[in-house]
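Researcher: Structure prediction, please.
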Amino acid sequence: MGKVSSPSGLSRRSAVHAILSFKAGKPPKYNVQYFTVGAMPVDRKIENVYLGALSYTPRFGLIVGDYGEGKSHMLNLCEDVARRKNFVHAYVVHNRTQDLGLHKPRNLLSRILKLIERDYPEIDRDKLHSRFYGFTKMTNGPEGRWLFARALSELSFFLLDEGYNGLAICIDEIEDCMNLHFNQFRPVYETMNYLLSELDGPIAFFFATTTAGFETLLAKWRLYVAEQDVIHYEPSEIYERLFANRIEMMPWSAGTGTDFCEKLIAAHSVAFDWEPPLSGSDLYEIAAERASRAPSARWRAFVQNAVTALEVIHQQTYSYSGAKERERAGGSGRKQLQAAAISIASEGATPGSTRHGAPVNSDGLAPGVMVRVVSGPHKGKLAEVVGVNAKGVIVKLIDKPQAGLSFKPDKVKGQEQ
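Model: Predicted structure follows.
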C-alpha cells in the first residue's frame, strides 16, 4: 500500500494532537470537521443554528447522545463552526459541586464572562467589566433568571461592536440539575422559559444531554407545570420551539467506521511519516471486532481500538524495517544514532531481550529503555524511549513528562507530544 497523501489542512502537529486525543477517549479540539463522518445532516443543522443567529434572531440546538457515542465530538464541532463563523464561543458543563448551571444564572453568567476574558484576550477587558459588572451582582432567584437572558442579549451586541458576528454558548449535561438538592430542575425550567421569551440578538445556543436524562427531565417539567397557575410555555412547547434543531449522533456502522479509519490512517501518516500497510476497511475489521465486546460507548471503544491497533502495526512495521536497514548498513546504525543524539545509560536493556512486551533492537533500544542525551539543549538529561523506528528513536525527558524530542541520525529535532 502506498503512502497516504496528507489531508488538506492537517499539519503534523494537529495530526499528532488528534491521535493522542482519540487514544485518551476524547475528540480533538481542532480539525474536528475532518474526522466527522456520516454526519452531513448534522452539519447542516449546526450551520442552520448559526445562520439563523446571523439574522440577529437567537437560535437553539439540542445535542442528544449517550456517553461515549459522540456527544463531545458534536460539541467540538459546534465550536469549530463558531470559529469559522467568527462567533465568540463559551462551553460550560452543569456542575452541582460548583453551583454552576442554568439553575444558578448569576454563577453561569460569571463563568461565561471569565471564559471570554481567557480565550479572547483581544476583547477590551475594561469595557467588558464596565458593561456587565452589574449583571454579575444579580441574584440567582427569579429576577436573576430574567436578567440572565437580558445580559446575554446585551453581550451578543457588545461582541458585534468588538468585531465578532455573535455569541455561541454550549451548556453540557443539563440533566445534571436533577441530581441537585431541592429540585433544581424547576429553576432550570424557568430559565429556559426566559431564554425563549426574552433572548435577543445574534446568539447560537446549544444544550447537550443524554437521551434518558432529557426524557426524564421533560417528565419532571410536566409534573412541575401541572402544579402552576400561570406558565409561559408548556414543556412540549419548549421542546418544539427551543430545540427545533435536534442534533443526533454520528451513526456507527461499517460505512462510517471505515470512513473514519481511512481518515485516521491518513492522519497517522502525516503525524509519523510512514506508509500504513493496510486499508481503512482492514483497520475497521480489527477495531470493530474489539469494540463489539463493549457493553456501551461503542464509538469511543471503536475509536480507541482503532488508534491502538494502528499504533501496534506501526511499531511492528518499523521494528522489521529497522532491522533490515541496519543489516544493509553493516551494523553502523548504532554509531550514527549515538553520535547524533543519545548514549545508552546504565538502565538500558540487553539486545535480544524484551521490554514492556516490545523487542529490544540491536542497539539495545526499546520502549521503556532509559537513555541519556549527549548533544543539543538537553545534553546530559535522562530520557525514556517511547518509540523506535528506522530513522531513530523517540524519547521523553524524565524531568519534563510533557516534553518530547525526536532524534534522527542526521539531526536532533524537537517534537511536541
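Model: Confidence is low (pLDDT under 50) at residues 1-5, 319-326, 329-362, 400-417.
Researcher: Thanks, that helps.
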